[in-house]
Amino acid sequence: MNEEYDVIVLGTGLTECILSGIMSVKGKKVLHMDRNSYYGAESASITPLEDLYKRFSLPGKPSESMGKGRDWNVDLIPKFLMANGQLVRMLLITKVTKYLDFKVIEGSYVYKKGKIYKVPSTEAEALSSSLMGLFEKRRFKNFLQFVAKYDPEDPKTMEGIDPTKTPMRDVFAKFSLGQDVMDFTGHSLALHRTDDYLDQPCLDTIKRIKLYSESLAMHGKSPYLYPLYGLGELPQGFARLSAIYGGTYMLNKPIEEIVVEDGKVVGVKSEGEIARCKQLICDPSYAMDRATKVGQVIRAICILNHPIANTGDVNSCQIIIPQSQVGRKHDIYVCLVSFAHNVAAQGKYIAIISTTVETSDPEKEIDSALELIKPIEQKFVSVSDQYAPTDMGTDSQMFISRTYDATTHFETTCDDIKDIYQRMTGSEFDFSEMERTKQDCFGDVE
């Protein structure tokens, strides 16, 4: 182990595995270590089911009605991939798609006044949606048409809106859209977590709605994809990529010390030996003295023997509960996957609820979501601290990732990956070389 590497990576979360793969492809000599014996770290999929009971210190074992323990691959952190989003582009550019099979999530829903409704994201759906009255449907249709043709490079498409100055609240007002429509547009299409976006320049929100629409157009049922056998397949795919390009992996490796000399990282000490490096990537748990707590997320993993009511009995879906509907500052998310994705026993479903903690009683904060998915066979609840780096790595050459947030997509994770990449290399992550046809890589999506 007494070798010198360009980059040492600590932790096998998705962020770390993607960066490890990218650096290996770029010709860097990479050593990747994890104190755990499995891939994925906090973004792992747990199998067998008995291990989930142990992880959450639940007494007893799964009942026989839950099938074989090996039939289960339960994600600790629920997220979907936007079909035209950044993670799919990273999978394409690195060709990791050949290690994975995906299914389209069957529906996207929004909560309004105690009920759930399908999210209308096309003009046809808008006109048939029971979310809105007749006149509002027409106004929303006009808004969607405006977003579809909007091009910040072409002033004719802007209709008097300045993308860098006009707040999104004014754009909604221009189309006379009411509070309920603003709620599902901002939170279920643009996927904002809070209402802060309303007073910020509209360009970001318009781009987000375009991403949702483009992702939806690719496969039809929803804009989301999910890998068979669970999200734990993603870090493993990028780990394979790194290994193909010469990366070295060591699991179950205790990390005794990150060695720093004159303020700069020079290596990692494990089992009495030091592996030397020029740069280091790690998750916050390996460098707590260089990270700060920025909040908490509650997640409830719920095992069901039924699909969620009022969804048309789909095998998978996302439900967003906009914060204003339940008197909160942050949205609540529900992700449903099932036996159809090889993550649960036959006839079983996994619903995972997540949100940003706001009070001293986190579980009470998700009551509205728990009510939607009842009855629940078994529940596993965790409250996790969220961390962000205080050291940006300029001097130390240590690059620390952010903890996974409550969102149910990987766009914020990809933003973090691109940010770390730019700080490490001094250049922006370039997607341009990726442009192979998506059908080549996702032709087998069901």
From TrEMBL:
Xref: Gene3D superfamilies: FAD/NAD(P)-binding domain, Guanine Nucleotide Dissociation Inhibitor, domain 1, Guanine Nucleotide Dissociation Inhibitor, domain 2
**Which compartments does it reside in?**
Cytoplasm; Golgi apparatus, trans-Golgi network; Membrane
Q: Which UniProt keywords apply?
A: Acetylation, Cytoplasm, Golgi apparatus, GTPase activation, Membrane, Phosphoprotein
- Report the GO molecular function annotations: GTPase activator activity; Rab GDP-dissociation inhibitor activity
User: Keyword Acetylation on this protein?
Assistant: yes
- Which GO CC terms are listed, alphabetically? Golgi apparatus; membrane
Instruction: Specify the protein's topology with respect to the membrane.
Output: Peripheral membrane protein
Gene Ontology biological process terms in this record: protein transport; small GTPase-mediated signal transduction; vesicle-mediated transport
Where is the major localization of this protein? Answer: cytoplasm
- At the top level of its lineage, which domain of life is listed? Eukaryota
Q: What does this protein do?
A: GDP-dissociation inhibitor preventing the GDP to GTP exchange of most Rab proteins. By keeping these small GTPases in their inactive GDP-bound form regulates intracellular membrane trafficking. Negatively regulates protein transport to the cilium and ciliogenesis through the inhibition of RAB8A. Regulates the GDP/GTP exchange reaction of most RAB proteins by inhibiting the dissociation of GDP from them, and the subsequent binding of GTP.
Question: What subunit structure does UniProt give?
Answer: Interacts with RHOH. Interacts with the GDP-bound inactive forms of RAB3A, RAB3B, RAB3C, RAB5A, RAB5B, RAB5C, RAB8A, RAB8B, RAB10, RAB12, RAB35, and RAB43; binds RAB3D to a lesser extent. Interacts with DZIP1; this interaction negatively regulates the interaction of GDI2 with GDP-bound RAB8A.
Entry's family note? Belongs to the Rab GDI family.
| Protein name, per record | Rab GDP dissociation inhibitor
- The species is Gymnodraco acuticeps
Gene this protein is translated from: LOC117557620
